[in-house]
Specification:
heterodimer, A: 358 residues, Rossmann fold, 2 domains, six-stranded parallel beta sheet, 12 helices, globular, B: 303 residues, mainly alpha, transport (chain B), Simple sugar transport system permease protein (chain B)
């Protein structure tokens, strides 16, 4: 409190000295979110990153955000408005904002953009993502060990590379520890719609799944699993600790804080450059939420060992020999998938059933 | 296909169809009274948010359902007063009510996104629940499933076996004649509209308190429009209404069950279209059903 008051006083003094300049020196950072801040999942974590930026830089930055922005023309409108209101840096935090980001970036070459999980860049557009598939591999191991029906349900959002990569990574690990395992994927065609997600989870449970993995952002599947009883789930994007120790036995947590602090810092210093960042467990961008006691000790140990091995680079979740779903060769013995293939992944690995909707 | 357990699928259908059944039975009464209220979606979503807010505040899902019914009925009175007293156009007012309800619910629901609501327990029916096949399909649900069916039965009784019900139908068939006979057309219609609002509210609350159970903006996702279609599908008869609701609920439940069963050969997009295609088909094929004579026509005692 007092510290803040001192800072405020200092800023006021500077303001007096330099006149209106002080106002303009404040770096304005905008965020657009695909869901509500209160989703306790994906968007919540991005907002935590925004708060971390405010904490780090205090009065040097001003942050604004718009939540629940639909992917499409609305996003472009919101972005344009943000840019017109003087934002210096804008984080667009969903894959579907890609086109809108590129279009608006072209119109405002002086504004810098950071697009999450995309692949198109420009001089003023960076991309960043986390290697969620590393966390998926750890989940896959736990899922494969824990399932008794050998049916694992997976709620997919949209059939895009990021989601397909997660399904493959989880399946490869699950299959490794449990050759009998079978994955059932339901596409919800939404990132955040508790009603649809709950229906999907229930359908999967009805089909015999006793483990549910989700790539959608609400806690509705957790609630459905809790109601069904003997079903386990994993927190997605955020910790979802409300549902621990069961059904939620672990989680993948996206931690954007450091990245956001670094990038805002770069704008303040004037060292910002367009680049592509893809960090995983080792950089702390992907965290594995606490594995609860519902998981046997030896499984927990194996999961943590895998996590450490991935972090140290000793193990890559996509290591050959691996074949594609149609039986064609993909990776030879010991070969590791390259980032370009992973970034554009549009195929299932051998053993997964069902088609990826085109 | 072979992987789908018919018992679980049928049981899912009954649950999935409950919210649309509730909303549709309310609208059926409204339309039998000669009023076309296209605001079902708006009243449902308002009921969903009112129910969730009351239930989390009090910890009682039953008070939540009561609050939802009240919220839906209050909102429907906006429509009632505008169309019955000020003689505004029913179609336009109904559409406006949907838009208004969606906005109002988003406002009321601020701060409730991601909040965990109270749990609605399944009703334990000893004996009945153990009947082979029928038990797991019909008798292992929460109380609202049975309340919805009970409301349908009571509406049928009311419309066909009571004097008040026949008066309501008379008002819907020919409001001038009913007025000439001394019946209070406007008062009766207002009561029917309030009942419709309350039922839609219950349907919405079933989504936010039982099905999901959480609050999200726009969570009814078109259920209100399906309810309107079911009323036409049922040719304004309560018995067929149940059938229609199960058919529509069935399309949704089957779509998910097929995906979850693995090895689906039909592209998912077709499955996701299915309920809406069914709606259109039903509307085209079942033109045979005759609508109440005064449906959607404005009434003024002077005319």
């Amino acid at each position: 409190m007092t510290f803040k008051t001192v800072l405020l006083g200092a800023t006021a003094a500077m303001g007096l000295a330099t006149g209106a300049m002080a106002q303009d020196d404040k770096t304005k950072v905008g965020f657009i979110y695909v869901g509500p801040v209160g989703d306790l999942g994906w968007t919540y974590q991005h907002d935590q990153g925004r708060l971390a930026v405010e904490e780090e830089y205090g009065d040097k930055v001003e942050t604004v955000y718009v939540e629940s922005v639909p992917e499409g023309p609305d996003a472009e409108r919101v972005l344009t408005q943000m840019a017109l209101q003087g934002a210096d840096l804008i984080f667009t935090t969903s894959f579907g904002f890609m086109e809108a980001t590129m279009n608006v970036a072209q119109k405002f070459p002086d504004v810098k953009f950071e697009h999450a999980t995309g692949y198109q860049r420009a001089d003023n557009v960076s991309t960043y993502s986390a290697r969620f598939y590393e966390g998926r591999a750890v989940q896959g191991l736990i899922a494969g060990e824990m399932t008794e029906s050998n049916i694992i349900g997976y709620i997919g959002s949209y059939p895009i590379p990021e989601v397909i990569r997660g399904i493959n990574a989880a399946y490869i690990q699950a299959k490794k520890v449990n050759p009998e395992v079978e994955f059932r994927v339901v596409w919800a065609y939404t990132w955040f719609d508790p009603a649809k997600e709950a229906e999907a989870a229930k359908a999967l449970i009805d089909a015999g799944a006793d483990v549910i993995l989700q790539h959608t952002d609400s806690t509705a599947p957790q609630a459905a699993a809790q109601e069904a009883g003997d079903v386990i789930t994993f927190g997605q994007a955020s910790d979802m600790l409300d549902y621990a120790p069961k059904p939620r036995v672990s989680s993948i947590i996206d931690n954007w804080n450091q990245y956001y602090i670094d990038r805002v810092g770069a704008v303040i210093d004037g060292t910002w450059e367009s680049k592509d960042t893809w960090d995983g467990i080792d950089a702390g961008m992907v965290e594995i939420g606490e594995i609860t006691d519902a998981v046997p000790a030896e499984v927990k140990e194996a999961a943590l060992a895998l996590k450490d091995a991935i972090a140290s680079g000793e193990v890559h979740p996509f290591t050959g020999p691996l074949k594609k779903q149609d039986g064609s060769d993909w990776l030879a013995e010991g070969e590791v998938a390259d980032d370009a293939t992973l970034a554009g992944m549009n195929f299932y690995v051998e053993g997964l059933t069902g088609d990826i909707p085109q | 296909m072979s992987n789908i357990d018919p018992i679980l699928l049928l049981s899912a259908i009954i649950v999935v169809s409950t919210p649309i059944l509730l909303a549709a039975i309310g609208e059926l009464v409204v339309e039998r009274a000669g009023v076309l209220n296209l605001g079902v979606e708006g009243m449902m979503i308002t009921g969903a948010v009112c129910g969730f807010v009351v239930a989390t505040a009090t910890g009682s899902p039953w008070l939540g359902f009561a609050g939802a019914a009240l919220g839906g009925a209050l909102l429907s009175m906006v429509f009632g007063i505008l169309t019955q007293l000020f003689l505004s156009n029913q179609v336009a007012t109904g559409l406006a009510l949907t838009l208004f309800g969606l906005g109002l619910s988003a406002l009321l629901g601020q701060g409730y996104i991601g909040v965990k609501g109270p749990v609605v327990p399944d009703l334990y029916l000893p004996g009945l629940r153990d009947i082979p096949f029928l038990g797991p399909v019909m008798f292992r649900h929460d109380a609202m499933v049975y309340i919805a069916l009970l409301i349908v039965a009571l509406v049928w009784l009311f419309l066909n076996r009571t004097r008040a019900g026949r008066v309501l139908r008379a008002v819907g068939e020919n409001h001038d004649a009913a007025h000439a006979l001394g019946y209070k057309v406007v008062r009766l219609r207002l009561a029917a509209i309030a009942f419709g609002g309350a039922c839609a509210g219950l349907g919405g609350a079933y989504l936010s308190l039982v099905r999901v159970p959480q609050w999200t903006e726009g969570m009814t996702a078109g259920a209100g429009w399906i309810a309107l279609a079911i009323v036409v599908f049922a040719s304004w008869r309560p018995g067929r209404l149940v059938l229609g609701a199960w058919l529509f609920g069935g399309a949704t439940a089957l779509q998910l069950a097929l995906q979850a069963s693995g090895g689906v050969q039909i592209p998912i997009e077709y499955l996701q279209m299915a309920p809406y295609l069914a709606t259109i088909l039903v509307l085209v094929i079942l033109r045979a059903g005759r609508a109440p004579g005064s449906l959607g026509r404005p009434f003024h005692a002077s005319s």
